[in-house]
Structure prediction request, 71 residues.
Amino acid sequence: MAKSCKGLAMELVKCLSESDCVKVENRPYRECAKEQSPKISSECVGLRETYFNCKRGQVDMRARIRGNKGY
Prediction:
């Protein structure tokens, strides 16, 4: 994983680990990350979108030359 997205990934995992989806339902992080807002907080949804955009920026050749945006 690239260093530019690693911090976002750690924040997303921390946020998901505190959600009811992981705590109460004992579901994997990957399943909970795909859930919509009622199961996870809006903060986690925002982190998820930011993380996915960061990963997408690594694949886009134009963004790779310019570097990822500072989110």
